[in-house]
Write a structure and sequence with these properties.
Shape: globular
CATH superfamily of the largest domain: Translation factors
CATH topology of the largest domain: Elongation Factor Tu (Ef-tu), domain 3
Strand content: 25-35%
Helix content: 25-40%
Oligomer: single chain
Number of helices: 8
């Protein structure tokens, strides 16, 4: 998921970061001090254009201390507009929580942006790999991914983000509602994969958290843009207590032949139906998509009796 549009850097603090990034791309990987304190899981829109970039929008988010080199090990065309990248990361100290993102640095490009992981944390710890799904835009870093990036391309990454699902073994079982819009599926798909890994570990008798019921509502403009749809359907078939409903908003023809895809937006009625089978007393809701969608989803959920403290969201722009 392309997280934010990066504009120019304006502060002395940001100029220092530019200098350090230049050093990185000259071949000197210098650890960066952690300049960002953990804050709320929720991220808000900033209308001031001077704060309208990835760095400003995430300045209160957690970031790991170092920038780490990575190599593009494979590239796939997930849809007409979305490229899938697998990055090989050789530093065993790098880790992430399901839902987090990486600052993505490209040699020769001073500005940078952020992309959410769409793979499970376990894949990084066991295989040294992480996956990104990046929708095309003409913004320089993203355009580079779609037009110039090749297998064996060298990049650098730094993990960050306060939007994540990372339950501890002792945490009480909670039901989870995941609501995705477009490429906002990326961090939520990582969460879904993490739930599947927890169930696998439980089956082996490992001491891990026991997830509750998980329901995903996933909306895109067309069925072709429901990336990961087939894999999500398989998860629903093979992993206990996972259910997903798909929605398309710009297709006018009936999709009655496709039993798991509905025409129309996720609305209050759909949310009410999803919540009917969930424990609202012990519920966590994660939303990722465009700002208008997030605002309406939160409003619906609160109307249906979900408290704001049970809702975490991340906006993409």
């Amino acid at each position: 998921m392309t997280k934010y549009v990066v504009s120019t850097f304006r502060s002395l603090h940001e100029m220092r970061m530019i200098s350090e990034i230049k050093q990185i791309f000259r071949g000197t990987l210098t650890p960066l001090s952690d300049r960002f304190s953990a804050a709320s899981k929720k991220m808000s829109s900033v209308s001031d254009s001077s704060k309208d970039d990835h760095l400003h929008r995430t300045q209160d988010d957690f970031r790991q201390n170092t920038v780490t080199p990575a190599v593009v090990s494979s590239i796939t065309q997930i849809s007409d507009t979305v490229k899938g990248l697998t990055l090989k990361v050789n530093d065993s100290n790098v880790s992430f929580k399901a839902g987090q993102w990486v600052d993505y640095f490209i040699p020769g490009v001073e500005i940078f942006t952020g992309y959410s992981m769409c793979s499970a944390p376990k894949t990084l710890t066991e295989k040294g790999q992480l996956d990104l799904a990046i929708q095309f835009s003409d913004y320089p870093p993203t355009e580079w991914v779609h037009t110039k990036c090749k297998v064996d391309s060298q990049v650098s990454i730094r993990v960050g983000g306060n939007f994540y699902y990372d339950p501890k073994p002792s945490d009480p079982t909670a039901d989870i509602l995941l609501i995705a819009g477009g490429v906002g599926i990326n961090p939520l798909y990582a969460m879904l994969l993490h739930v599947a890994d927890l169930h696998e570990a439980l089956a082996k008798g490992e001491n891990v958290h026991k997830p509750g019921k998980v329901t995903m509502l996933y909306s895109a403009r067309s069925e072709a843009e429901l990336i990961f749809k087939d894999d999500i359907v398989k998860l629903c078939q093979n992993v206990p207590n996972i259910h997903c409903e798909f929605f398309v908003t710009k297709e006018t023809q009936s999709l009655s032949s496709v039993q798991d895809v509905s025409v129309g937006r996720i609305n209050e009625s759909k949310l009410k139906s999803a919540l009917a089978d969930m424990n609202k007393e012990n519920l966590k809701c994660y939303i990722c998509g465009p700002p208008p969608m997030i605002s309406s989803m939160e409003e619906y959920l609160v109307t249906l009796g979900v408290t704001k403290t049970q809702i975490a969201y991340e906006k993409w722009w």
